[in-house]
Design brief:
The complex is a heterodimer of chains A (about 300) and B (about 325). Chain A has a single domain, classed as P-loop containing nucleotide triphosphate hydrolases (Rossmann fold). The model of chain A has no long low-confidence stretch (mean pLDDT about 85). Chain A is about 40% helix and about 20% strand. Chain A has a six-stranded mixed beta sheet with strand order 6-7-8-3-9-10, with helices on both faces. In chain A, strands 2-1-4-5 form a four-stranded antiparallel beta sheet. With about 325 residues, chain B is mainly α. Chain B has one domain: Orthogonal Bundle (ABC transporter involved in vitamin B12 uptake, BtuC). Chain B is about 70% helix and about 5% strand. Chain B contains 15 helices and four strands. In chain B, the strands form two sheets. Chain B has a two-stranded antiparallel ribbon with strand order 1-4. In chain B, α3 runs antiparallel to α4 and α8 packs antiparallel against α11. Classes of the chains: A alpha/beta (about 300), B mainly alpha (about 325). At the A-B interface, α4, α5 and α8 of A face α8, α9, α10, α11 and α15 of B. Chain B: This is Branched-chain amino acid ABC transporter permease. Chain B: It is a multi-pass membrane protein. Chain B: Keywords: Cell membrane, Membrane, Transmembrane, Transmembrane helix. Chain B: It comes from Microbispora bryophytorum. Chain B: It is found in: Cell membrane.
Chain lengths: ~300, ~325
């Protein structure tokens, strides 16, 4: 009976992951995004050094890791907001290294931001309309002839109204986006990203700063994206959320992908525990280690005595 | 106190040459700063290269007037690209720094001794407006209502000026109602968000910079033609700052705010200036104020008035208070 309550796409996504290896960079049956040897250095600091990673089409994949693991930097590389020093990545087989952010979005890979970027002095509806692609009226000369873009604008408005209704923002239609609450802004940002018509939605900490009452509705919306056939890759700290909605988890630490796996078992992976809590944080010291430390200390003492003599 | 003279000069200032020139410069700044959020502090240079482009073509090289207009226009567009290409990919402050420096460079080149055979040094250029006034449809005489009237030359310049203002306001209205204007306003709010929605931010910023410059350059042509002369020091940095004051006074990102702002700014300046000088000559003010220093006092008083306006009405005349409230959140 349980299988009936699981939506079809979730079942398909889980089936795709069944029996996959837990190693970082494991090959997926149908990857939408393939990343190879991406490196980003800031001076002497290597923020990102990802050898190989794949994101399965039609799944919800979580990207987790301790603070400073390079998740957001990695996101910025992939979406063209920052340039990678080395490496390559392909979205639907199309190479995206060096492609500017707006072209990445047009290719169907749309992101949201950790700090929500609602366009404050535009109304909610204008925010939504902005997301639509190939607008005739966005050309300078055609903009001067309202007749050339009116009809398309009506179609865009209709689509935006449907999305706003789904995201329960229809009552706020004509309010300034700046007057929305933090959670509503997240919803607006997600809805606006959908106006682009993406294949891969990249959410950077979708739950950060969201009132708990809105969390469930946001989670529901993310799951809906998969049901509509989109792929979701998201960065998140909240492990409950990760367990709840993701089909697969990729773990980053110190710029590297250190483990991958299904959400229910990934947190018990020793590599992940090490990354979050530090290696040997609770392992008892072995007899050999004890002996070694003792000898080191004695040697140090002896050398000090010799120096004084 | 001759209140009649004060009244007449003040009313004339509200539609006079300065108002027209500053309104056009401010409409350009409103496009760049008010709608697209670009800090162009070199608007004076855009007017300057247009005015000099035309004046030098006609006065120095004795070429036709319309070719001069074309060269002025081309010079403005080249300047916009020159300033925009290196800076528009960077943070907003870089454009501000580069434009303010470029405006001074342009002015100093115009007044330099080395190029005085071309630009005429600090005396500038004259004798280029003949063709423009030859097109004047008004026969000699004065035009207006009672004492508020202008001679046929000024009337012609003002007619052209207000027609240009009407056209550019219509253009701005159409553009800002369109999806093109929506992208511009979104860039002002957050350009990364706009990038993430698949818009080429650099291209839109460039379009705004060029458009604002071209509107400003119309003001440059009128400035030169209205005075039948160009001098480098007309295009100094305070010109740009007055234009910014006008935009903020009217309320940024409103179609008519630069026009009303310009009229109000010049009405205030002329009214306060004339009232002060009349009061001094009538001996109504303490001896501290003399004919020589009231010019400075005038700017102090107008500055004070503008500060009060911005404290009590920060959104400007046409602005929406709700928008200002959003910034405080």
């Amino acid at each position: 009976m349980h299988a009936d309550t699981t939506p079809a796409r979730k079942a398909a996504a889980l089936a795709a992951f069944a029996g996959l290896d837990r190693e970082p960079g494991v090959a997926k049956p149908d990857p939408i995004l393939v990343v190879d040897k991406v490196v980003r250095r800031f001076g002497g600091l290597t923020a990102v050094d990802v050898d190989h990673v794949e994101v399965q089409r039609g799944s919800i994949t979580a990207l987790i890791g301790p603070n400073g693991a390079g998740k957001t930097t990695f996101f910025n590389q992939l979406t063209g907001f920052d340039s990678a020093d080395e490496g390559s990545w392909a979205f639907n087989g199309k190479q995206l290294k060096g492609v500017p952010a707006h072209r990445v979005a047009r290719a169907g890979m749309v992101r949201t931001f950790q700090l929500t970027k609602a366009l404050s002095k535009l109304t909610v509806m204008e925010n939504m309309r902005l997301g639509a692609q190939n607008q005739r009226g966005e050309n300078f000369f055609r903009a001067l002839i309202p007749g050339s873009w009116r009809r398309q604008e009506d179609e865009i408005t209709e689509r935006a109204e449907e999305l706003l209704e789904r995201f329960k923002l229809d009552a706020k239609r004509d309010d300034f986006a700046g007057s929305l609450s933090g959670g509503q802004r997240k919803l607006l940002e997600m809805a606006r990203a959908l106006m682009v018509g993406p294949e891969l939605v990249m959410l950077d900490e979708p739950m950060a700063g969201v009132n708990p009452a809105l969390t469930q509705s946001l989670l529901g919306h993310v799951k809906d994206l998969r049901e509509e056939g989109m792929t979701v890759l998201f960065v998140e700290h909240d492990m409950d959320m990760v367990r709840d909605i993701s089909d697969w988890v990729i773990v980053m630490a110190q710029g590297n992908v250190i483990a991958e796996g299904p959400p229910d078992t990934i947190m018990s992976d020793p590599r992940v525990i090490d990354a979050y809590l530090g290696a040997h944080h609770d392992a008892p010291m072995s007899a050999e280690e004890f002996e070694e430390q003792l000898q080191e200390a004695e040697a140090e003492l002896e050398s000090e005595i010799e120096e004084k003599a | 106190m001759d209140w009649n003279t004060i009244f007449v000069t003040t009313v004339k200032a509200s539609i006079g040459l300065e108002t027209v020139v500053y309104a056009l410069a401010a409409i350009g700044i409103n496009i760049q700063f008010g709608y697209a959020g670009l800090l162009n502090f070199g608007q004076a240079a855009f007017l300057g290269v247009a005015a000099y482009g035309m004046a030098v073509t006609v006065a120095t090289f004795h070429l036709p007037f319309w070719l001069g207009i074309l060269i002025g226009l081309a010079a403005t567009i080249v300047l916009a690209f020159l300033l925009g290409i290196p800076t528009l990919r960077l943070r907003a402050d870089y454009l501000a720094i580069v434009t303010i420096a470029a405006a001074e460079i342009v002015r100093l080149v115009f007044r330099s001794v080395k190029f005085s055979s071309v630009f005429g040094g600090s005396d500038g250029r004259q004798n280029f407006s003949g063709d423009f006034f030859a097109m004047n449809p008004y026969s000699p005489g004065t035009y207006g209502i009672g004492p508020i009237s202008f001679n046929e030359r000024v009337t012609w310049v003002l007619t052209v000026g207000w027609v240009l203002i009407a056209i550019t306001c219509g253009l701005v209205y159409l553009l800002m109602k369109s999806p093109w204007g929506r992208v511009l306003k979104a860039i002002r709010e957050d350009e990364d968000a706009v990038r993430s929605l698949g818009k080429n931010v650099f291209s839109y910023k460039m379009q705004a910079l060029v458009l604002g410059g071209v509107v400003g350059c119309l003001g440059g042509f009128l400035f030169a033609l209205g005075q039948a002369s160009v001098q480098p020091d007309l295009f100094s940095t305070e010109f740009t700052f007055y234009a910014y004051t006008i935009v903020i006074l009217g309320g940024a990102a409103r179609v008519f705010s630069p026009v009303v702002g310009a009229a109000l700014f010049w009405v205030l300046l002329v009214f306060v200036g004339n009232t002060l000088s009349e009061a001094v000559s009538a001996g109504l003010l303490p001896s501290l104020f003399t004919v020589n220093n009231i010019g400075a006092v005038r700017f102090m008083l107008v500055g004070l008035g503008l500060m009060l306006l911005l404290i009590f009405r920060p959104q400007g005349i046409f602005g929406d208070k709700r928008e200002i409230a959003l910034d405080a959140r």
